[in-house]
Amino acid sequence: MTIRHGCFISYAHGRHAYMSKFKSDLVEALQCYLEPHFDNENELFVDSEQLGGGDDIDSKIARALCESACMIVIYTPKYEAHGYTRREFAAMQLIEHERQQWYTLPGHLIIPVIMTRHPVSLPPQITGGMYVDFSRYTLASGDLKANPDFIPDIEKIVHRIVEHYHCLKQSTPPGHDCSRFVLPDIPPEWRAIPPPHFPR
Q1: pLDDT in tens, 186-196
Q2: Mean pLDDT, residues 117-134 taken together
Q3: How far is the C-alpha of 13 from the C-alpha of 76, rounded, in Å?
Q4: What is the DSSP string of 45-63?
Q5: Could you give the CA distance from residue 51 to residue 67 in angstroms, rounded to a whole number?
Q6: Taking Cα atoms as reference points, which of 144, 142, 138, 87 lies closest to residue 116?
Q7: Which distant-in-sequence residues (6+ apart) come within 8 Å of 13 by Cβ?
Q8: Domain boundaries, the chain
Q9: How far apart are alpha carbons 92 and 86 in whole angstroms?
Q10: In whole angstroms, what is the distance from residue 113 CA to residue 168 CA?
């Protein structure tokens, strides 16, 4: 297995500035602080930028997940509502289960970044391990990589990615082939569907 990406970014796509700018700002900040730690690998895999043409999107996503040291989930209520993003989440859980046999994980492979909180509560899939809360982010927050309010959380994420990267680099079994990894079926909803009158 070749490690090609420090981290896979999993997110629900947005059409407007708030979601797209947050994703871009977070990616830029992480790339900036991750660069000194990697050799020839890309710091991050972002599907909107790196998939290219072709029809076999599922196999490209599956391989990119497998060739990543870990995964960042940009959590919004929209994330858990989309079957495909839940599928990426479930795929990385499968990869984590496999890697637990190779080395002692420094933490879960999935690192949730809270962009927007759910009006009811955050799901246990998101709060079950380390997560960072960026829900105070607005379009007025400026450059994340230079904003002192966010730098400690950026550093926390970078440290966890780098830990996973070095563990994986030292412990991957010879001959492990990421081309064999396939995405699981779309998993069920994370929580019961609310009644039609919600929210009031």
Answers
A1: 999 998 765 55
A2: 93
A3: 10
A4: EEHHHH--SSS-HHHHHHH
A5: 14
A6: 138
A7: 19, 48
A8: 5-171
A9: 10
A10: 22
